[in-house]
Amino acid sequence: MTKRALITGVTGQDGAYLAQFLLKKGYEVHGAVRRSSHFGVADHRLRWLGIQRDVKIHDANLSDLSSLIRVVTEVQPDEVYNLAAQSFVATSWRQPILTANITAVGVTNVLEAIRLIKPDARFYQASSSEMYGLIQQERQSESTPFYPRSPYAVAKLYGHWITVNYRESFGMHASSGILFNHESPLRGIEFVTRKVTDGVARIKLGLAKELRLGNIDAKRDWGHARDYVQAMWMMLQQDVPDDYVVATGITTTVRDMCRIAFERVGMDMDKYLIIDPDLFRPSEVDVLLGEPAKAQKVLGWKAETSLVDMINEMVDADIARLAALQVVAEATM
Ligand code: G4F
Predict the structure, then answer these.
(1) How many angstroms does the Cα of residue 180 sit away from the middle of ligand 1?
(2) Residues 119-139: pLDDT tens digits?
(3) Residue in 281, 221, 232 with CA at minimum distance from that of residue 254
(4) Can you tell me which atom of ligand 1 is nearest the CA of 218?
(5) Where on the phi/psi map is residue 260: left (φ > 0), alpha (ψ -120 to 50), or beta?
(6) What is the domain partition of the chain in residue ranges?
(7) Is the pLDDT of residue 39 over 80?
(8) Does any ligand 1 atom lie closer than 6 A to the CB of residue 213?
(9) 279 CA → ligand 1 middle, Å
(10) What are the b/e assignments for 11-20, b being 16+ CB within 10 Å?
(11) In sequence order, which residues have a C-beta less than 8 Å from that of residue 116 and are 6 or more positions away?
(12) How confident is the model at residue 331 (pLDDT cuts 50, 70, 90)?
């Protein structure tokens, strides 16, 4: 029997990689997508991976329970992956209520739709290492206490605990993946790795003269999104639902990540990097470092891609993308 998966946030970085991974496994893949007047733009990641015709798109919104009930009724999924969120930390201070409605309460809406219509469906919640915030242990594992530092992290913490609660209250197969930062050429331009690789590519091609960043002393545990979506699927293949940290176990400063990107194109970072105080956050998560031992032991999962390989892949992709745009612009002049 062909398995059916429903992915909220299928047009995002993780949604696109997960859809590709599940299609390769023979799944029928459905995506719940918030209606937008920009859909031709919104599905660009599915197009990049060449799977836009293979994913069945449904119109739904995480803040509208009735739309989720309709989609779950139509799809009758075996597995539901809740990846949709207002996921940019910096925006969460400017739109805290929207962030709470989507990133926190939206999780309950998805869980309710499943509980009412297809209670045997397996559920994955995209939890976040941002929940550790002001870290309480040097390496963060499933048992490390949380201390969120942004409206986004507070909302994610709600989503995490409501997932645990539905598992314990209703016996649902609901798992939460506490994913540390994960990036790729499909990462949104607002996140620091992609901002850096796009910026370096622009400087290399003569399209920009500088790169402005905020707190480059922050440290993150960065892995590749393509590796991380596999852990999501592995969680839902377990007999018993549970929570898992997904990380590389290595932490690096934004400064050093940036240096790797400049080194890829043979340029000196110090000539182009400008620190902009406006890009600092009201409260910062200074350092994150994951302990992925449980995921490795129980799921057999391990991060495969090094930070250097990932940043090189991203810089190369941004150079290719921008060079192609330049060719089109010149041809139409
Ligand atoms: O790339 P970031 O915006 O990612 P952040 O805030 O760590 O959150 C990401 O990872 C989380 C998992 O831990 C996800 F839950 C979340 O949805 C998102 O995917 O920023 C990383 C660090 C921060 O410390 C930030 O202050 O980079 C620092 N930074 C310095 N200059 C910058 C910049 N971040 C951005 N976005 N832009 C800058 O110019």
Answers:
(1) 11
(2) 999 999 999 999 999 999 999
(3) 221
(4) 24
(5) alpha
(6) 4-181+222-246, 192-220+252-286+306-331
(7) no
(8) yes
(9) 11
(10) bbbbbbbbbb
(11) 69
(12) confident
pLDDT digits (tens, 9 = 90+) for 251-275: 999 999 999 999 999 999 999 999 9
Q: How confident is the model at residue 38 (pLDDT cuts 50, 70, 90)?
A: low
For the question of whether the overall pTM of this predicted structure is more than 0.85, the answer is: yes
CB 160 less than 6 A from any atom of ligand 1: no
* CATH number for domain 192-220+252-286+306-331, candidates 3.90.25.10, 2.60.40.1730, 3.30.420.40, 3.30.1130.10: 3.90.25.10
Distance 191 CA to ligand 1 centre (A): 6
Instruction: Give the pLDDT score at 55.
Output: 97
Structure tokens at 37: 């007047």
Average pLDDT over the chain, rounded to an integer: 96
Could you tell me whether strands 243-246 and 174-179 are parallel, antiparallel, or unpaired per DSSP bridges? Answer: parallel
DSSP helix/strand/coil, 120? coil
